[in-house]
Amino acid sequence: MSDLSQNPSGPGDALKWLKTPWTLVVVLLLAVAVLDPANFTSVGEFAVLALLSTGRYILFAVLLLAYLKATGAEVMVAKAFEGRETRMIFMAALFGGLAPFCSCEVIPFIAGLLALGAPLSAVMAFWLSSPLIDPPTLLITAGALGWPFAIGKAIIAVALGLFGGFTVRALMRGGLFTSPLRVAPTTGCGCGAPKLETKPVWKFWQHQPRRDHFKAEFISNGIFLLKWLALAYVLEALLVHYVPADLIATLVGGEGVLPIAIAALVGMPAYLNSYVAPPLLAGLIDQGMSNGAAMSFMVAGAVSSIPAMLAVWSLVKPQVFATYLGLGVSGAIVSGIVFQMV
C-alpha cells in the first residue's frame, strides 16, 4: 500500500520543515515569480483550483483512513492467509487493496507470515497488490483522473496480485523458492508492525484511547496528503505551462506498445507516491500521454517504492526480489496495454 508514515514535524522544528514538500512548493513558486513573473498568477491559480477541486476527496480519504486505523481494521488482513492456497491467493490479492498499511508496515507483517509458514504465493499476491491501491489512493486518483481510471487501477491491483500469486505458485511447484527469507527482518522506517492479536472495534468512539488515535491519524494524514498534493498540483501547473506537449506525445503518446513499455521503465526508478502521481499524470495526459502509458507508469511506480524496495531486498533472497520486480514491470506493461484497449 502507499506510504502514509511521514508525520509532520514538531512545532518549531524549522530544520525538519525545510526538508518537507512545503519547501519545494515555496521554492518552485518563487522561481516562477522571479524567472517568469508574467505567468506566476496563472501557475498559482492552476495549482490552487486543482487542489480545491480535490478537497472533498482528500477530506473523505483522511476520515476513512483515520477510522480504519482507530478501529484496528487491518487485523482482518490476517484472515486472508487461512485455508487452502488458492483461496489464500485470491483473498490476499483482494485484501492487499483494502489494507491501510503503509509500505513499511507491510514488511514486518509479511515477514511474520513467511516465518509462520504462509505460502510465498499468497504473500506475493498481497505484496504486489498492496502498494497499488488503498481507500485514500482510490479517492485521490478519482479526483485527479476520474472514476474510470481509479476503478481500473483497483481492478489492476487485484489482477496483478493474482498474476503474481499464481505465477509464484507455479514456480514453487517447480522447486523454486523453498526458503525465501534472507534473515530475520528488522525495520527502522518509523512504522510500527501491525498488531494482529486483537479484533477490530468498529465503535471506536466508545474508547478514549481509540478516539485519541483517530484524532492523531486524522491530523497527521491530513497534513501529509495536503502537503504532497500541494506539491503535486504545483508540479502539474509547471508541466502544463512549460513542457512542450509535442515532447510528451513523442515519448509516451500514441496507441502502440512501445510508449507503454517506456512509461513502465521510466516509472519504476522515477518513483512518485500514489498521491503525487495522479495529478502529474493528469497533466501528462493533457499534454499527449496515452491512458495506457499513464496506467503503466502508475503501476510500475507504485511497485518500485524506494522504502519498500530496500525492505524487500533486506528481507528476501535475491531470486525472490528479482521475481517481485519482474512481475511488477511485466504486470505494469500488460496492465497499460489492456487499459489502453478497454
Automatic annotation (TrEMBL):
The chain crosses the membrane at residues 21-40, 46-68, 89-118, 138-163, 218-235, 247-272, 293-315, 321-339. InterPro entries: DUF318, UPF0718_permease. GO terms for cellular component: plasma membrane. Pfam families: ArsP_1. Its main location: membrane. It is found in: Cell membrane. Coiled coil: none annotated. It is a multi-pass membrane protein. The keyword Membrane applies. Keywords: Cell membrane, Membrane, Transmembrane, Transmembrane helix. This is Permease.
